[in-house]
Protein 1
Amino acid sequence: MLSLDMSNMKDKKILLVDDEIDILNLLETVLKKEGFNNIYKTTSGNEAIKMCEKMEPDLIVLDIMLPDIDGFEVCRRLREFSLAPIIFLSAKDDDVDKLLGLGIGGDDYITKPFSPKEVAFRIKAHFRRCEYYNLKSKPQGKKVIPFGDIEIDEEKGEVRKKGKIVTLTFKEYKLLLYLAQNSNKILSKTQILDKVWGSDFEGYENTLMVHISHLRQKLEEDPANPKHIITVKGLGYKLVTEES
């Protein structure tokens, strides 16, 4: 049985990005009461990107409506160099916005008005999942999973294509690794969502489709006619190795 050590949670660096100072201060107060010591704040999207480059936060709470660039654009730029979980905040309870946010690399979506306690709960849940995943993915024997010209290095948490590192988001990496660990097996959409996003994820199948599309764009020679990441109509997905 895996034993989660969450004692280092208080040292996690959390970046709060919102143009409303009152919301930033309220979230900071609640998170500190919940035991988080390293809280950083900004009201600007561009400043958030600069801060992420310097401080490398462990998690980002990101408002969509910002005065300079919107949260979606901030997320796109962050995903060029950061795998930190991103929780979107939005005044819009719109499925399109949710799918867009999750599709471009976000990990969660909270609609305003919200309870600061809920935000703290979601943050803790993400850290627990990351810790659990790190424990589960510690290599047991086979450390590198190859297929075609792609290699997944479980020990380093890296994916290489033709020897060059491919930048994936945390969710993209988890999705690819789960498919690869069950290569040549059909996995249902429910199985994948439960494993990669968690059983309490209130998401949609479209979220999974977007992430599959991103993986194909990054890994397949012809994303429109994938060789490895295959859709099995009506059943789910599977990762096909070259040998099969």
Protein 2
Amino acid sequence: MQIDIISVVPDLLTSPFAHSIMKRAADKGLLTVNVINLREHTTYARAQVDDYQFGGGAGMVMMIEPLVNAVEYLQKTTRYDDIIYLTPDGETFNQKMANSLSLKKNLLMICGHYKGIDQRFRDHFITTEISIGDYVLSGGELAAAVLTDAIGRLLPGVLNDESSALTDSFQDNLLAPPVYTRPEVFREMGIPEILKSGNHKKIEEWRYEQAVERTRDRRPDLLKD
């Protein structure tokens, strides 16, 4: 999979993809992430990519021309399955969306800044608008990193044990059950006896029951489906 990300501040995305699972995905040749500096695609002086909004009001707006220049340049060599705009008023990101996007081949993400991007660009170029929550960030870079991580870890071969992703929270509309590791007893705190039984059928039943109970307590909305 290839994920291209257009950003005004590309340095913000240097670290998230240089470590841990995302680095492993890149090293295995399973995921390629390219960060494109929007300022390299503007014709305005001093690498300008934003301007005052028509009608007045506080805050600058990212101009349409540099964005179109960048996208059309990238489209000369890459055909995108989706062009995603990270924005607070987009559809809220969830595991189902991550699963769907992980099946794509090429994705392009647009990181907004300031008061957002010119609406004409959204109308004519964006295919999907996504929010990672009901709050506002300084820019879309952190949201792009979240999407890339959530999508990238689902690619076959990225995780050492591919079944691990299938038991994550939200995969079956349930939160993950509690987990334990060594030592078996720590400061007089033990672990549930069932986990030491060796009866895998009973253990899976226990885990399912715990997942349902935790979901009912913490996210009952998930059980409506």
Protein 3
Amino acid sequence: MSEVNNQRRAFLKTSLGAAAVAIAPGMLLFDMAHGSTEPVSGKVRWGMLIDTNQCKPGCDECVTACNTENGLSGGKLPTDSQWIRKIEIKDISTGRQSSLPMMCQHCEHPPCVDVCPTAASFKRADGIVLVDKHRCIGCRYCMMACPYKARSFVHEPLHDQNPDVPRGKGTVESCTLCVHRIDEGLQPACATSCPNKAILFGDLNDPNSPIAQKLRTVASTQVRADLKLNTGIRYQGL
């Protein structure tokens, strides 16, 4: 009996150690699917500047690209996951209307991470907010905490998944900024697909990056800036 207990304790110790490594800041949890184990750097903060002047009403190329890249159904049912949705807003004082994509805003201070009881919701060192599907218990607290309604719950079994984008029934998911592409040195699918070049992706911390340079020269805003979440997604023209 003592040998069994010793083995059990050894197993638990090993498992807990692995879990501690898995949630260490900067580790590429999402890259386990394709083998990368290199840590990311906090010197980088990935983000987007979306020019609503160039985002055309009726255009949903970014939505389609996101669905295709991440293996989403793109259906219209409430049970379908949708990581990007196009919304139309109107300034009631001027009547001006704008069309823009809304997704996870990759907050510096993400409410979804604060409320998650299992540490499934986490923020990488480079600012990308993700969900560890192995830890998610489907409680959906993060969905209630997100002020952008950017998270969805997987209700049905999944088929023909992209092996680089792990998903699972009974878990919560949202835009990952195409982290699997970023870790390979590529741009997110939505940014590359936009026919009007309305989405500028890059390193917010690098003063010489195109996105940082543009943010210094144009007026931009954060959606719900009053919440002081310091979002990684900024909008021009709102």
Protein 4
Amino acid sequence: MADRDRTDADSDIEFDFFDEPPTIERSPVEPAPRPREGGGGGGTPPIRPRSPGAPTPLVRLALLIGGAIVLAVVLVFWVNSCRGGQKKGSYEDYMQAAAAVVRESDSIGTQLGELLTTPGVTLDDLGTGLAGLAKQQAQVVARAGELTPPGPLVSEQESLVEAMQLRQSGLAGLERAFAQLQPATEPETAGTTLAEQAFRIVAGNVVYDDLFKGRSEQVMKQEEISGVAVPASTFLESPELLSQNSLAELVKRTQGGGGGGTDGGLHGNQIEGVLVQPDGQALSPDQETTIIASDQLAFEAQVKNSGDFQETKVKVTLTITSPEPIKRQATIDLINAGETKSVTFRDFSNIDFSRPYTLKVAVKPVEGEQNTDNNTAEYPVIFSLE
């Protein structure tokens, strides 16, 4: 009985053991899909249809890449534009600074012209005046040397300084040469000596025009710089003042030919004739001349120095008689003995075509002039539209 009970117990234990379901390894439980609003149950959500015309992801990517390229191109152009503006600005700043230097130098040249054509000027006057002008030009040289050019214009900047130096050297050389002259120095010999010094000024003008202005314009064209002007320079309105003949006449004038007619020579000018421009028609003092009026109408008066000395600041006047006379005036800075020079009168827009006129040209007598009969000439004229 006891054995059976034990057997039954054992059987129960074995039964319970084998009746237990075997252990199964599971992977972690994944959360169930979240149900969509308004719907029931899980599962894969339905695919929504793409609206017509909507770009695919590939198209959107292409659009983004294209936009980035366009933006990059715009940025490159903007950067290059800024750089180009800065580059042009450096040329503009330099040329403006150079123009200030040139204006100051040209002003000195104007003073030189006034000095050389001053009536009654003496050797002492010339020496003192030239010394002062040379000092002024030396200051211009210093200012020119302080300019900072763009890189491509370094050589041209050196030429600018050289041109200013040549002008200064010429002025100083003329001052020394005049200081060495004696009252009895032969004018022709003196003129040759003075012209050798004056040549430095002429050379300075050539260096400026060719090596600074001309080459600067070429460089800016190569650098694609537009709209920046290189300043022009006119150191002397009448370069002939520095010729050997004019300087010899100047010396002669300082040796007693300044006027008064007591120096053994004659002073005087005369009217040689009048031409109508632009056709070159000569007016006649004896018969009426028909003049075709136009906006280009001008009268060219020819004046001859009929004396023995150089004359300066010669005043010439043209008058057309009418109820309200039309009057024009011009000045010949310098005219050497035996030389003929022309002055041109313009702007005759208020001419009355219904009546004849008398055109009168007169040259003002110079100091020491005794014969003034040929200083005036009159011409009968009539104006026509055709």
